[in-house]
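Hmm, how's this folded?
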Amino acid sequence: MGATLKRGRWRGAAFAAVAALAAAPVSGVGLVGLVGAAVLAGCAPTAAPAAPPRAQASAATLPAASAAPRPAGGAGPVDAGELDEDAARLTDGEIARVLARVAKARGLPVRREVRSRVLARGQILERVRAHVEREIPEGVLDHQREVLAALELIPADYDFTAGMYRLLEGRIAGFYEPEDATMYLVDDLSEAEAEETLAHELVHALQDQSFSLGRLLDFKLGDSDRLAATHALVEGEAMSAMFDVLVGSAFQVDESMLRRLVAMSTALSSVGDTPLVLQESLGAPYTDGFAFVQALRRDGGWASVDAVWRALPETTEQLLHPEKLAAREPAVAVAVPTAAALGPGFRVVFDDVMGEQALRIAFGAYAHRDAAIGAAAGWGGDRFAVVRRDDPEDPSRREFALAWRLRFDSAADAAEAGKLIERRFGKACRQRPSLGPIAWTARGSDVAIVAGPYARRGGGGGGEVSATATCAGAGKWLAEVMKGGAGGQGAGTVAGAAVGREK
């Protein structure tokens, strides 16, 4: 592309076109709905969650080979001053040339020009933070942290939000923002990185012009699995069209090799204490989405992808199994777990659906990837609830607990998932010093898990954590959750509104 970014700082480090990876809606959120969509919504459509909101910004990320270490602690102070107006724009001709190539490869019309800005990395991160604060309701990220902590997917005292920002900080190369129809690029990219990022983000611009990304990816409480599916379509299509532009055809890219390269790249560029679940949630929308879009293209070309935009997948199960999308196989509606057995003061403050993609990521922290995929493949529906009790005498202290009810396609599928859960947590209830008891049970095609209560004292990221209950109480609560069954309160649809949410 030549000197694509005028007067920008360039770092020479050529690399094979692995991917414009990016963050996500929890999502992920699910975990990708949790992590992707929620945390990284500002830089990648959708979170989760995980993800992890308005998907707005689909963030492209840098391969490890070219990602220089960044200061710890997330997005620090904004770099001094934006670049001046001349330095902060790509020329109209540069954008128009690449946009024409991308439009031809993808087969979408150019309806209007795409604005662009080049910003320092600190400024990009500040925009992401502002977007997350604007789009995600207060308390949601804290409650998502409790889901991951209770299931031992992150350490009990891990600063979840700061950890996601640290992970993103070394990876982000740019993003497209539907709110102002502008593409933002980091000013320290090499020419190869800029070429990949530009192609990837211009696909998002065309998607927005034809399909209104902001509207499709608005963050909604309790809707993470559907958002994660849409997020993966958005990113998978951008990956596929990007490879068409860069290497001639996306079908020259081996999907399994891409998955390995993405995982390795993310791991190498991660901060040392970044939990595996967060790394996996970052890459899943791109790798799962790419596989999905490639399957559609093999079946009917870009016309098949266009058809999916007119009738979006409703679950990540449909995304991971295109035959289930073709059959429009619905998820089983599962009631929001209750917490009466825990005693007075406990109430549901957050609930959502994990979905198959997030379940696969969670199981991947407990077992080998192949086993995790197999155990998650029988997913039929689920819903989890974070419950909380505030201490009236100490506002800095709160008790948390988690209940999760899953419905699988068959008793055999539930048994397979149960074996994996047993491998991690054992057969009987296990008492944990900081997180309290964790217990699970399976009956027919249903599985239920309860964890906690435990107390967290102190604001900010992690805080001091200590158990406040024993296995005796966990057994009673587990029986209550399992008795809830499918359907009932809060289960009109899997993506229905959660009940009892409070800040």
